[in-house]
Amino acid sequence: MTQLKEILTSAQCECIQKQTINHDEPGSLLRDFSSFIDFIGTTGISVSKKNHLVAMKDLQGLNQRMSKPLDIHLKRPQQKSFPHINGLYLLLRASGLTRIVCDRKEAKLMLNNKLLAEWQTLNPTECYFALFYAWWHRGNTEIIGERGGDFWGGKSFFYDSLYFFSKTLDNKQFNIKNKQHEFSSLRYLPGLHNLALMELFGFITIKQEAALSKENWPITEIKPTLWGTSVLTYFSNYLTIELDTGVIAVWGDELKTYRPDWQKKLEPSQCNIKEDAGVILNVVLGNASRTLSVPNNINLDELAECILSAFNFSNDHLYEFIYKNNYGITEHVIHSDIDTDDECLYTDGYIVGQLPLYEGSELTFRFDFGDSWEFLLSVESFIDTSSCPSESEVIEQHGNPPEQYPDWN
Asked: Which of 25, 286, 346, 363 fits as disulfide partner to 323, beta carbons 3.0 to 4.6 Å?
């Protein structure tokens, strides 16, 4: 890959080399991120059942913990009303440091204690770039309840922010004083959560003047920092090389030569259970429920057969399993007979032990795309190796299942 000194000025290289990274520099990212983690604590916080966003009752309290709390005048503010909280939530999910735990009454955002312990071994520089990596590679807007986006060109969720920084700012300030239409445009490009994250990372400085705007975030001026220009110029070149040449570059590799304090990275694992153990699944369809004991080494076709049999359904249609991975992004594992041009995971080659399961996690088994039967699966507990069944079995059942073909009677 191109040497850093070939794409950056000497001042930019020096900035990257000498920039202090701690809880307050180059932005308040690490301080506010730690405040969010402390707010979640050991008991977790309530989130909405559908999109898993922070409950309205907790938003003001969390806002007051931020380095720059916003004065929100809305009667019923939502998570997106607080761009910094919204951006930090995106990082929390995209980093893998949190997970959603559900029961029939509520959903909660909980810390992933295993990964949190690893996070706590990182120095501030390593934490900073671990979060930037999560934003770049996994910052899908689906995480914050918006329409999910793919990598631009297959490479980065960060593209909107990079485009705004390089094209709109272009090493100069962006003044929107008394120009409300320009503020409104920021909602779409780069998006207020991305703008807040750029401020938190120290890529930009934002000036506010409450008397001049009716907005909850009264921005009047956005200005790039030398740190932001230096780092994003480098990563813009990294993105261009991958897209234009197909060269596979190690993310941030050249930058590390200027930052010897950046050695370790955060490595989340998608698979949380052993292949030779088992899992207890509660499966609900309508008013009927079945509790299944399932070995982890069976594939999802076998699991599908067990579910259908437990509810007296014939296995005569196509199906898929749908779940949100450890980053809050929806994944589909589909029947091998489904024709698609996309790269997919297939049920005949995917075993239960490969699913990112943990106690309280949920997934959906969607059967018969015409009638669209949706079975809700939730993880109750795990079975150790010594008592793991060799085949799936129904260990408890409640209620009568609906008829698969009621009109045939």
From this structure: 363
Residue 265 maps to a domain: no
CA 224/CA 147 separation, integer angstroms: 28
The reply to whether 240 and 323 lie within a common domain is no
Are residues 234 and 346 both part of a single domain? no
- Band of pLDDT at residue 388, cut at 50, 70 and 90: confident
- Same domain? For 74 and 14 the reply is yes
pTM for the full predicted model: 0.91
> 30 lies in which domain range?
4-256
Highest mean pLDDT among 160-174, 198-212, 315-329: 315-329
**What pLDDT was estimated at residue 243?**
47
pLDDT for the residue 276: 65
pLDDT of residue 111: 97
What pLDDT score does 344 carry? 85
Contacts 24+ apart (CB under 8 A), 221-226: 221/173, 221/174, 221/175, 221/176, 221/177, 222/169, 222/173, 222/174, 222/176, 222/195, 223/169, 223/172, 223/173, 223/174, 224/165, 224/169, 224/171, 224/172, 224/173, 225/26, 226/11, 226/12, 226/15
Pairwise CA distance, residues 62 & 233, whole Å: 33
Peptide bond preceding 26 in cis form (omega within 30 of 0): yes
- Cα–Cα distances in Å, from 97 out to 133, 273, 307, 337, 370? 13, 17, 32, 36, 38
Burial of 138 (0-12, 13-18, 19+ CB in 10 A): buried
21 and 129 in contact (C-beta within 8 Å)?
no
Coil, strand or helix at 230: helix
Please report whether residue 268 resides in a domain: no
**pLDDT tens digits along 110-169:** 999 999 999 999 999 999 999 999 999 999 999 999 986 655 555 568 888 988 898 877
In the chain, count of helices (H) and strands (E)? 13, 14
Q: How much is the pLDDT for 270?
A: 60
Q: How many CA atoms lie within 13 A of 33 on its CB side?
A: 30
186 belongs to a structural domain: yes
